[in-house]
Design brief:
- The complex is a heterodimer of chains A (328) and B (346).
- Chain A has 328 residues and is mainly α.
- Chain A has 11 helices and 2 strands.
- Chain A folds into 2 domains: 62 residues; 262 residues, Orthogonal Bundle (MetI-like fold), CATH 1.10.3720.10.
- In chain A, helix 7 packs across helix 8 and helix 10 packs antiparallel against helix 11.
- The longest helix of chain A is centred in the N-terminal third of the chain and has 61 residues.
- With 346 residues, chain B is α/β, with parallel strands linked by helices.
- Chain B folds into 2 domains: 152 residues, D-Maltodextrin-Binding Protein, domain 2; 161 residues, D-Maltodextrin-Binding Protein, domain 2 (3-Layer(aba) Sandwich).
- Chain B contains 14 helices and 13 strands.
- The longest helix of chain B is centred in the N-terminal third of the chain and has 21 residues.
- The radius of gyration of chain B is 21 Å and the shape is elongated.
- Classes of the chains: A mainly alpha (328), B alpha/beta (346).
- At the A-B interface, helix 1, strand 1, helix 4, helix 8 and helix 10 of A face helix 1, helix 3, strand 7 and helix 9 of B.
Amino acid sequence: MADIALAHDFAETARATAMRRHGKGDSRFRALTFGAAILVVAIFLGVLIALLNGAWPAIKTFGFSFLWTEKWNPVTEKFGALAPIAGTLISSFLAMAIAVPVGIGIAIFLTELCPRPLKRPVGIAIELLAGIPSIIYGIWGLFVLAPYLQAHVQPWLIDAFADVPLLSALFAGPPYGIGMFTAALILSIMILPFISAVTRDVFETVPAMLKEAAYGLGCTTWEVMWRVVLPYARTGVVGGAMLALGRALGETMAVTFVIGNAHRLNPSLFAPGTSISATIANEFTEALGDLYVPALIELGLILFFITFLVLAAAQIMLYRLERRAGAR
Amino acid sequence: MTLISRRLFGLAAVAAAFVLPAAMPASAATAITGAGATFPYPIYAKWAEAYNAKTGVRLNYQSIGSGGGIAQIKAKTVSFGATDKPLSPKELNEAGLAMFPTVIGAEVLVYNLPGIKAGEIVIDGPTLAAIYMGKITKWNDAALAKLNPGLKLPNMPIVVVHRSDGSGTTFIFANYLSKVSKEWASEVGAATSIEWPVGIGAKGNEGVAGNVAKTRGAIGYVEYAYAKQNNLSYMRMKNRAGKVVSPGMQSFQAAAANADWDHADNFFMILTDQPGAESWPIENPTFILVYKNPKDPAAIKQVLDFFGWAFAEGDQMAEGLDYVPLPDSVVKRIEASWKAVAGSGR
């Protein structure tokens, strides 16, 4: 009896020690990971505060009109962010309009139609595209793509749409080679691998049974992709597209090379424009005066908010998609 | 997540740009510290190398831009600041700074027109201002045709190229246009960055040179050395005296010699649109800023000794890099002005 009680006691204390030890380890681990998580929040807030602080003189002087003023005059220190904001949004969304269909097309080809021996080389080539530094895209854009567009593509587009009411304004003016259109084109090439690689990966997670069943019912490849694969994989596709949009919004170097860096709004896509990141990169080093640097920092703050809004919109979109899929 | 972290990286880089120059150590005994304009960096580096070989004194020059140079000397983190845009005598007095020029650099207009060779086109100030204001948009415009009788100019849109980054080069160019065009002076003005009425922006001299070289119908302004070293087609210009001059050491030196240095308060001098039949119209000295009453007089003496040596021995090195040395009479004035700097030993 006593023996059993003793053994029981012993087992009890051993378990308690082990629990205590583990408990300590657990709490330490929790503190560590909690600290890491808090650090991210702290850095986020720190950046926000630093930006607000740096931009304060400009915010105080220009108020909200900063957002819709086109003028950017360092001589008289009158600054407005409309041209860079518009340039950032237009170039990014135009790039998305080009890259999303093409990227999804590549993913469809690679998962469904591609002959087996071609599958890996093409896949690797697309992933390599993602590894090219943006400065290379910029130089290539300026020295190869822009002169080609100026000589062969833009004059043709200008002539072709000269008599079409809305399009003639979009494709107007002397062919400079560089400008909003070229920037969007370069951006679309840069974000293409993000979209196609992510989309291909999610397409491959679609159960073969679903597709086989659809084919068995007599669906064409198009119908299988459009009705079965895309709806099944839409969360991943939207996620990949948002990742790409994020890259496009913040891209600096390649855009600076080819966008034309002009603080003007112009309906023509061939006209030079500017983006937020290009403006900051260009003008920061020699920014003199009391309001110039704050105005540039305020631009950074605006980019911060735009990216934040885009991410938030992506989350809401994903949430809606999931809820709708669940309801059906 | 990736988005946020990428944004943070970008901001960290910007923050580093703020902090690094300020964290530079103050002058060591055998090193002169300076910061500022990028334009004279190649010649300062070359002088420094030769000077170091001779005296063992090193020059630590950070080419962070004129704006940075002015900010750093005012923050007293360096012994001298360098700027392409001169400070006005009033600004100098308020800050207690002395200013003097070191070398002169010239700007030329480069273009890309198929079938027209280097130096074949002539342009004058008012026409140039009209092009950069978007009033003249075609190469076969009447104003250009009048300046270039006998030259077959193509019916091609003019692609105006300018600097997108703030730059002393832009300041000098805009300053010239302000002198030759009332409209430019009142509507645009002159500064290191300006609000350009037309055109595409490119970063740095190399960016403008690259854009002009790759865009048919383009015109741009670059420092002479860039046009020469990249074999770009440059224009001849009609100067204030109404004479057509080619860019080159001779016309650059003529403008420097013809300038009115007698009345240049604190050497405040912008060498644009100078008189004289031989004078090239767009050029400028680049300047050095030092404190008149420095907290470390020994360091200032080193700075002045260095530039004194460069004035005496460095002319050939400057010409080799396509800078224009100052006229001897100006050098004499500069050295006399150094007496006002405490601890200069002069």
